[in-house]
Amino acid sequence: MSQRVYNIFQKSVEAKMQVGEELGPLIDHASELIVESLLADRKVMVCGNGTSSAMAQILTSCLLDRYEKERPSLPAVWLGSSVSTYTALAADYNYSDIYAKPIRALGQEDDILVVISTSGNSANLISAVQAAHDRGVKVIALTGRDGGDISSLLDVHDVEICAALNSRTRIHELHLLTIFCLCDLIDHKLFGIE
C-alpha cells in the first residue's frame, strides 16, 4: 500500500508540473485583479459546488482571517455560507439561481467573483457568471478539463485559470494550490509580506 500512496503523490506532482508554467502568469494576473478591486474598496465573492464550494470557503477564510501571517482582514463573501438562504432559493425559484440572486443583490461594479468548477458546466455557476457580468463584476474562473461552458462566457476583463487535466482529483489539487498562490500574491502585493 505504501507504493500506492507514493504513486498518488507522484501523479499529483506530475500534474502540477504539467500545467504550472502555463498557469503562473494567469494566477499572477488574477491576483492583480483582486488587489485592484480591494484597493478600490470592493469585495471578493466566491462560489462553487461540492468540493469546489469547500475550496471557495477556504479562499474566503484566508482573505477574511489571514493566510500565513497576520494582516488586516480583506472583504470576502462565500456565497454558499447560508444554508437557509441557499435552500430557500433552490426551493422557491430554481437551483440555478442560488448564486446569481445574491450576486445581483450584493455585487457592485469592479467587485470580483471567483467561480470554482472542475467541469465548467454547472447551471448555477453559469448563471453566477452571467449575473456577475450584468452587475459589472469581473470574474476569475478556476476551471478544469476544457473549461466547459463557463469558458465561453468570459470576456476580456475576466481571467480563466484552467487546469487542463482529465482527473477530477488532480483538478481539485491544482485549484487548491492556485488558491494558496493567489493568497500569497495578494498578501505580498498589498502588504509586502514575504
**Which homologous superfamily in CATH is the superfamily?**
Glucose-6-phosphate isomerase like protein, domain 1
Class per helix and strand makeup: alpha/beta
Q: What is the CATH-assigned architecture? A: 3-Layer(aba) Sandwich
The tally of strands reads 5
**Order of SSEs:** HEHEHHEHEHEH
Q: What's the CATH topology name?
A: Rossmann fold
Residue ranges: pLDDT <50 for 5 or more in a row?
Answer: none
Number of helices: 7
Strand proportion, as a percent range, falls in 5-15%
Cross-sheet strand order for the largest sheet: 2-1-3-4-5
Question: How would you describe the shape?
Answer: globular
Radius of gyration: 16 Å
The top-level CATH class is: Alpha Beta
Query: N- to C-terminal separation?
Result: 38 Å
Largest sheet: 5 strands, parallel
Q: Provide mean pLDDT, rounded.
A: 94
Roughly what percent helix? 55-70%
- Can you tell me the number of structural domains? 1
Question: Can you put this structure into words, describing what you see?
Answer:
It contains 7 helices and 5 strands, in the order αβαβααβαβαβα. Helices cover 57% and strands 13% of the residues. The longest helix has 38 residues, at 2-39. A 5-stranded parallel β-sheet has the order 2-1-3-4-5, sandwiched between helices.
Could you outline the blueprint of secondary structure elements for this entry?
Elements: H1 2-39, E1 44-48, H2 51-64, E2 76-78, H3 83-92, H4 100-106, E3 112-116, H5 123-134, E4 138-144, H6 148-153, E5 159-163, H7 168-191
Parallel strand pairs: 1-2, 1-3, 3-4, 4-5
Helix pairs in contact: 1-7, 2-7, 4-5
